Amino acid sequence: MNTRERQLARAGLQALTRRHFFRQSGFGIGSLALLHLLDERAFAAAADGARDPLAVRPPHFAPKAKSVVYLFMAGAPSQVDLLDPKPMLQKHDGQPIPEELVKGERFAFIKGTPRLLGSPYSFEKVGPAGVEVSELLPHFKTIADKAAVVRTVHTTQFNHAPAQIFMNTGHQIVGRPSMGAWLTYGLGSENRDLPGFVVLISGENNPDGGKSCWGSGFLPTAYQGVELRNAGDPVLFLTDPPGVSKEARRDSLDALRALNERRLEETGDPEIETRIGAYELAYRMQSSVPELADLAREPASVHAAYGTEPGKVSFANNCLLARRLVERGVRFVQLYHRGWDHHGTSKGDDIVNRLPKLCLEVDQAAAALVKDLDERGLLDETLVVWGGEFGRTPMNEGRNNSKFLGRDHHPRCFTIWMAGGGVRPGTLVGATDELGYNPIEDPVDVNDLHATILHLLGLDHTKLTYRYQGRDFRLTDVAGNVVTKLLA
Amino acid sequence: MRRGVRAALLAAAVAIVAFALLGSGARAGVPAGPAPDYERDVAPILREHCVSCHGAKEPESDLRLDSRAALLEGGMSGPVLVAGRSAESLLVRHLDGRASPRMPHRKPPLPADQIARLAAWIDAGAPGRDEAPAAAAVAPRPALHWAYVRPARPAVPAVVREEWVRNPIDAFVLARLEKEGLSPAPEASREALVRRLSLDLVGLPPTPGEIDAFLADRSPDAYEKVVDRLLASPHYGERWARPWLDLARYADTNGYEKDQRRTAWKYRDWVIDALDRDLSFRDFTIEQLAGDMLPGATVEQRTATGFHRNTQLNQEGGIDVEEARFETLVDRVNTTGTVWLGTTVGCAQCHNHKFDPVSQKDYYRMLAFYDNAEYSVYGQGEEIVDRWIVEPDLELPTPDQAKRREALRREAEGLRLEVEGRDLGADLAAFERGIAGPAPVFTPLPPVRFEAKSGASFRKLSDGSLLVSGEVKDKDTYTVTVRTGSAGITAFRLEALPDPSLPRQGPGRASSGAFVVTGLAVREGSRAIPLVRAAADVNEKRRSAALLLDRHDDTGWGVTTDEDAGRAHFVLAQPKHPLVAGGPGRTLTFTLDFQSGWPHVQSSLGRFRLSATSAKDPFGGLPVPDELRRVLDTPKGRRTTEQEAALLAWFRPLAPSLDAPRDRLRTAQAELDEMKVLTTPVLRERAGFERPSTLLRNRGSFMSPGERVYAAVPAALGSLPDDQPPNRLGLARWLVSPDNPLTARVTVNRYWETLFGRGLVATVEDFGTQGDRPSHPELLDWLAVELVDKGWSQKTLLREIVASATYRQSSTATPALRERDPENRLLARGARFRVEAEMVRDVALAASGLLSPKVGGPSVYPLQPEGIWNVPYSSMQWETSRGEDLHRRSLYTFLRRSSPYPGLRTFDAPSREQCTARRVRTNTPLQALTTLNDPVFVEAARALADRMMEEGVGDAASRVAYGYRLCTARRPGEADLADLREFYERERTRFAREPESAKALLAGDAGKPGAVERASLTMVANVLLSLDATLTRE
Question: Which of A165, B29, B192, B748 suits a disulfide with B783, CB 3.0-4.6 Å?
């Protein structure tokens, strides 16, 4: 149904409801004018956010981006092997790290004094800012001129689940709304046939933080991320039961609607109108979602660029889906790819064998997404973010004297990149010390990152609030500064 | 940058304005006003902008700005005003930005005219009434917020329409309505009332029989009879447990990354049972918070303490256990605050509460109550990375189990005495004689077939050993078939051998070189050869040879120390009966189990060899450790006592004469260990008599411990009575003491919210100054006092509320009323809202007749789509229940926190990761898809169609009408019935044309007679289950 049709449907419903008001109220014809006014006001109120949680709401100021694609690298990629090279580590490879750096430090797995671990990979300077990029990310090199690399993101959490929850909700303990929920709460959704916040998952398994990573916390559940599933129905219960044809479904919804409208007339409860709308939207989703998820009709050139294979579960497929979602006006698309937890306890989780595999799974498609959005003129209004929940230690973990090379969790600094949506292209923000242990210039904490993302979407992070338990909550809690160096 | 400039300019402008006004205004007075006055000109400004931080409660910089005396006294930086000289007064300088930081901190500056007014007052000499400096000590406290004043029973107000009033509740409601010029709605229809009562009190729709009985009952107390029936129903407790379990954050898993299973349903059943027997809310509180500390605490009272054990448990590798423990305590304090005090105490974790009277010290004093409960840490030691907090479980054996366990324990005790104490002098002598002979010779058993469950590969080495490589799994099982020699067999030997290809040269495949064999079994063909004794060269404390043959899957013989890495070790095992001589082609199959692995910690062998001996005394000589060999070499008379003891200690587990009792002991122990005794998580107080205490944490971070504080309740809310111990029990009793101003109010408000969809205080979780004011404060207090006076009986409270005319009102509203009071704050109509998540499914199951009435028991697994559970480092699977457990009430659905049941989550059920006092109610397309297409609802539609076919007598119209009534408790109106009939006929035509579709829709029921009718009615049922009237409590 297009916008016009929707308006018509709504008008029809209003007319019907008006008839009901006249019948029920017992007012004389002389009160008609007054009643008409009341009626109009009631519906004006009904159209606002209280009644329709996903109605489009204006931002606080002119936005740069309309949508976000957040490529969440769950498990935490190694910044020192990918985007923040440290020659000093190579030079002093195998030597113990200076005691004073790690004195009193809490590590997840490292015991005693760990040894420095130089990256086995070579780096090349690319883009206008001369960002050094690892040989493991050849495709990223081709979009480095469009991206801003931030090397000094830091977090307070050093275990996966709390760190992922923190990265997504601004608080390490579950219960707060996620970024996507805040954004759809703040801005509504442009597409009324699809959810405003969509989650796509690939990799080893679901993220450690669980579904709270895209939860709505204390916001209404209408704002929680909806998982587009890889197997079975892309959206739960999208398919009609066996034996129920499209016409049968339409007929049943017509019957349902007739009865519900009658109930609306009898009770005057506007919630029924919302319910009728929800069932109609569900019906439209039954066509719009399969159409959206059908990658087979994309041309071969697109598949070649992304490395997609329709029908397969992959990060590449999800990147292409993300583009299709953004095209359709979905506000926040979040991809999770779990598998970056490279401790080096075995061949299956080290930086020599496993890390390159993960890069192969992700690099091409992520770069293709940025280019594709750019070619379609969507990059200006779409913010793409790539990053994990923390970084990895410049030291070898060496758990139980493992002979495999790997790195422990490192919350003090890690690298993310952003592109499009008002981000200054080809920039480098922040610098870390020569061991890659601490930020030394322009540190960016998680709240700052959130403030910046909201800013690009036209929202003042101090003003996007929700009152709960007697307090105005924010995604950024009591902190957060917009990273102006990132803005175009 | 630009913003900074603007801010500076603004500050300067303010300063200029202030100055300008000072210049003239100071002497001339603020234009045309009377002389400045503290109460009129100053206090309101300070109250609005400053007092929230500079108030009575632990003021910032020790500066209070809530009285004139306090202003004169100043704070940490000295006096803030110089009477007569505003330009030199810090108060003004900080406000206009000349002194840093500009105040109010991080908030917009005050309007220039307000600053000018303050300046003018200072310049006038800061006049005011409380001149005496002594007054500073007794600065008047601001009036207490209403919720912190103990409720008193208010007088029942007089009303005009007295005939409408059924009980005092109505008088309060009507008085307000009359004041507002409104009148209450008429009473709802009888059908609506019986459905409303059923849903509200037991969470299920009324059956046609129950509806008919109520419609037919014309006695004056017909309504009360229904209420009594429902309150006595075993389903009452199930329905009211739901909101409480949200508060209690009850779930079936630990939460966080691994989100493993926990067994806690006994607590859930305790809640249901306590509600059913109407345990007073007083005891309901005390038993849950401190049941374990009651004198002579019963099993049930201990089970109740599971309330605070519902906190999440983080088992992710590499966590900081101290931090995890701290977060658990924080959750307990915050939950206590929300549930009983209706107060967000959580703010005070990091700083003094800005609005409510809870200081940071108060917060940690509360935390101290909980910091005295027992706990330990799983996985101590440097090398262990998986650590978590372990709190006590209470065992709940059945009477049979208790009896059997007692018997087994007694038997085991006797056997242990025998095995550990029997005099072995003669045996030892015989043994010594035996080993004087030649050491037994072991011959390798050549492997002919071998495989590993993990898919690891084997290479046969020339010495008869096998070298493993390739795939490494955390757990593994090797199956090795060997050829036997010609001699008989009295014992087997398993050698663990080093190899350069293994981590740290092995013998294990773990990165440390360690291994643990958890099971060794031999069979010949399909015949098992029982092994009775084992001995090894190295016996670590929890990995001794004896554990190899026990019945635990996850314990065994292993060598794990650093010193033993890269060295050969062996274990011997003796068959119960010697094997007779082998023959050509005779083979034995060994199974080697390695089941002790944790994620990422492997335990399998990297290189090993199997061999056998036919020696008469196979254990002779060989396994004797070197130091004991020296003892044996010493003639008996010359051995020291220690030497004798060491020898005996070593020999005892090997003594053949103890084989029988040892065997029996093993069996008894195994039965004891395998006895599946139910457990439930409980709180248990640490022994000791000290007052519970804890360390304050600066800024709320557990990394920054501060001063020690002792358990106490928030000072502003009262104190523990002298006769109460300063511990958890005292806290629990204080919470439900008449002195506590909050608990009763918060409790009745929650009940009100559940029945009316909205609390008298809409923010049911926050009664503080930032929460909503009550819509009917006197009614709230009246109910609170009533609850306490009636012995905290929850059923009595409910009976009172549902008896009111207020509750019985029709929920239909005129547009004018809806416009006037869209949220129904004034209660001029009945409440109308979508039923809660659990009820959405329960109503469908009940209407269709599928619902199982079974109360309590382990959580169940109804139909759930594939792939919902996919959690890192966890192999837990959703194993769909069978039989009636498929159709149990929704509160029994297994709740995994990281992946809650989608059918419930979609309808706003929380994930129970945290205490939830109020569910937000949404209305979304995902809900629509659920009632239309979720297999649970499709199955319900089929079953509902069945009922329509079989119970709905007559033609299609009466069948459809019957189904409508099952769902909504009403008979359909003519128009509705006509629409449904028409839809039914259309479907009938369609299915008659496409019989295959009918079969597909009916699935398992396709064989029943009348497939076309049945399928068409299923479609009708599908609509009925999605009706607003079905989903809504009207």
Answer: B748
- Report the chain B residue with the minimal C-alpha distance to residue A268: B813
Kindly indicate the confidence band of residue B29, based on its pLDDT and cuts at 50, 70 and 90.
Answer: very low
Residues B364 and B441 in one domain: no
Interface ipTM = 0.75
What H or E segment, with its residue span, contains residue B705? strand B705-710
Contact at CB, B933 and A275, closer than 8 angstroms: no
Choose the final residue of a domain: B597, B623, B649.
B623
Name the 3-class secondary structure at B451.
strand
Which chain B residue is nearest to residue A231, measuring alpha carbons?
A: B867
Give me the pLDDT at residue B827, please. Answer: 97
The CATH code for residues A67-231+313-486 is: 3.40.720.10
Q: CB–CB of B256 and A162 under 8 A? A: yes
pTM assigned to the model: 0.74
Strand, coil or helix: what is B142?
Answer: coil
Residue B338 included in any domain = yes
| pLDDT score at B172 | 98
**Cα A276 to Cα B217: distance, rounded to the nearest angstrom:** 37
Sequence spans of domains, chain A? 1-44, 67-231+313-486
Q: How far apart are the CA of A274 and the nearest CA of chain B, in angstroms?
A: 7
Query: Could you tell me if B585 and B541 lie in one domain?
Result: yes
Low-confidence ranges of chain A (pLDDT < 50): 1-50
B923 and A35 in contact by Cβ < 8 A? no
* A106/B1027 Cβ within 8 A: no
Q: Please give the residue of chain B at the shortest CA–CA distance from A257.
A: B1027
Backbone angles phi, psi at B572, to 5 degrees: -110, 145
Residue A107: closest C-alpha in chain B: B318
Higher confidence at residue A97 or residue B29? A97
| Identity of the residue in A236, A264, A401 whose CB atom sits nearest the CB atom of B504 | A401
**DSSP per residue over A272-323, as a string?**
HHHHHHHHHHHHHHHHHHHHHH-GGGS-HHHHHHHT--TTS--HHHHHHHHH
The token duo for A485 is 């160096």
CB B963 within 8 A of CB B944: yes
Nearest CA in chain B to A282: B925
Looking at the structure, do residues B453 and B573 belong to the same domain, yes or no? yes
pLDDT tens digits, one per residue of B202-224: 999 999 999 999 999 999 999 99
Does B7 share its domain with B81? yes
Q: Please indicate whether, in this complex, the C-beta atoms of A25 and B815 are within 8 angstroms of each other.
A: yes
Contacts of A282 in chain B (CB under 8 A): 925-926, 928-929, 932
- Coil, strand or helix: which one is B827? coil
Amino acid identity, position B279: L
Interface contact A45-B930, CB threshold 8 A: no
Of A212, A278, A400, the CB nearest to B383: A400
Q: Is residue B539 part of a domain?
A: yes
State how far residue A340 is from chain B, nearest Cα, in angstroms. 12
Residues B9 and B64 occupy one common structural domain: yes
pLDDT exceeds cutoff 80 at B151? yes
Which member of A206, A218, A266 has the closest CB to residue B870?
A206
**Using CA atoms in the order B86, B92, B97, B99, what is the torsion angle rounded to 10 degrees?**
80
Position B718 in a domain:
yes
User: For the purposes of burial, counting CB atoms within 10 Å of the CB of B421, is it exposed (0-12), middle (13-18) or buried (19 or more)?
Assistant: exposed
Q: Which of B112, B137, B162 is the last residue of a domain?
A: B137
- Return mean pLDDT, chain B: 87
User: Which residue segment(s) compose the domain that B541 sits in?
Assistant: 426-623
Chain A hits for B986, CB-CB cut-off 8 Å, are 251
Q: Which residue has the higher pLDDT, B782 or B64?
A: B782
Q: How far is CA B578 from CA B434, B441, B491, in A?
A: 17, 16, 8
- Pick among B382, B923, B976, B983 to test the A interface (most A CBs inside 10 A): B923
Q: Do B611 and B693 share a structural domain?
A: no
Residue B155 has pLDDT above 50, yes or no: yes
Answer yes or no: do B1026 and A256 touch at CB < 8 A.
Answer: yes
What is the band of B583 on the pLDDT scale with cuts at 50, 70, 90? low
Whether B447 and B364 share a structural domain? no
Q: Is the pLDDT of residue B141 over 90?
A: no
